[in-house]
Design brief:
The protein has two domains: about 190 residues, Vaccinia Virus protein VP39 (Rossmann fold), CATH 3.40.50; about 45 residues. It has about 260 residues and is of the alpha/beta class. It contains seven helices and eleven strands. The chain has a seven-stranded mixed beta sheet with strand order 3-2-1-4-5-11-10, with helices on both faces. The chain has a four-stranded antiparallel beta sheet with strand order 6-7-8-9. β2, α4 and β3 form a beta-alpha-beta unit. It is globular, with a radius of gyration of 18 Å. The structure holds S-adenosylmethionine (SAM). S-adenosylmethionine binds next to α1. GO terms for molecular function: glycine binding; glycine N-methyltransferase activity; identical protein binding; S-adenosyl-L-methionine binding.
Length: about 260
Amino acid sequence: MPITQDIFYSLPEVWDFCLEKIYDKKEYIDGLIELFKKEGISKKSLILDAGCGSGFPSIDLIERGYRVIGTDKSSEMVRQVQLNAAKRKVSIEAYNTMWANLAKQFGPVFDFVYCRGNSLVYAASWEQNWIVPGRSREEIERAIQNFYAVLKPGGKLYVDVTNKDEKPHKENIGIVKTKEGEVEIVWEIEHDANAKVRTWTIALRFLDSGLRKAYPSYSYLLSHTELVDYFEKARLKDIKEIKINGEKNYNVFLGTK
Ligand SMILES: C[S@@+](CC[C@H](N)C(=O)[O-])C[C@H]1O[C@@H](n2cnc3c(N)ncnc32)[C@H](O)[C@@H]1O
């Protein structure tokens, strides 16, 4: 009897598959650069990608001449960002640093800090199969305080979060080509409004073999009011929700130190 080979992908690789489908990357990068221009951010400015993941959009920004440093608490992600950068012959400074430790590593040196890809809500639960909502709230608050601490006076903080109107749902993200052939990706989003927990499961189906894999992630169901409260408590000013061309997945907030 033939042995069916199992297939293994890391979460960073699976996130990379999703990014291919959920963004028109060029449109989003152009949208971000438009924002930079409006906010006085130039190629001389120093930018922090806090929770850089596998390198979107930091690698693209570096390719376009911007000075971006990446940090992430996941050593798997830091490995992936280096692999992705090397494939594109880009050099990136990326550190394995938790948001809570940013102020220990950096002074107030950044003109712009962004934390995107709906990352903040995973502050105390990424790559874990459990979540304690109260711990997540503490870690989210500490993260925002640390973002504030590493900004220069007048510097800008960009944070995106789960869409305000999101309802629990299942969504076909599309089909990606991998070295094992085509893979269909489905996202399932569940909300536990009482516990304030959001479960996001990425389900993969390998079309050739029929093999299925599921990657659940648990996050804090952060409301926009809570996010704005944390911004205010951290002493950020001019807090506003903004629109970025090409950002159709998450809601974006901006604050100024
Ligand atoms: C959904 S991924 C998004 C990655 C990337 N920002 C993007 O837009 O593709 C979430 C990222 O947040 C990072 N992260 C979560 N909690 C963190 C923390 N407390 N400190 C630093 N990074 C964290 C994870 O390791 C992961 O790389």
